[in-house]
Amino acid sequence: MLKYLVLSITLFIIGLLGLFLSKRHFLIILISFELILLSINLNFLIFSFFLNDLLGQMYILLNLTIAASELAIGLAIVVTVYRLKGSLIVDLIKLLKS
User: Mean pLDDT per segment of 10 residues, for the chain of length 98 residues?
Assistant: First the structure.
């Protein structure tokens, strides 16, 4: 169980580093956010298996469904911004607010 918790913590830290260190590239931010969500799901799975409870596994299915829809919407936004601006730099995306 401990090695899976270490793996989950490692994925979470890599996701956080990706969020904080790469503030300019939208795809890296999106992938980092997905890594954080997957590490949380791995924690739910570990503790669900350890406590012999199915509620954590049902929550994982719900969370994965929401994460997949979030990723699909995010990729649609990426494609639209790339077609309009020709770049995926986050600073240029802030111009779309006006």
Answer: 91 93 82 91 91 89 89 86 75 64
Domain holding 7, by residue range, is 2-97
Number of domains in the chain: 1
Query: pTM for the whole thing?
Result: 0.78
Find the Cα–Cα–Cα–Cα dihedral 50, 51, 52, 54, rounded to 10°.
Answer: -110
Q: What's the CATH number where 46 sits?
A: 1.10.287.3510
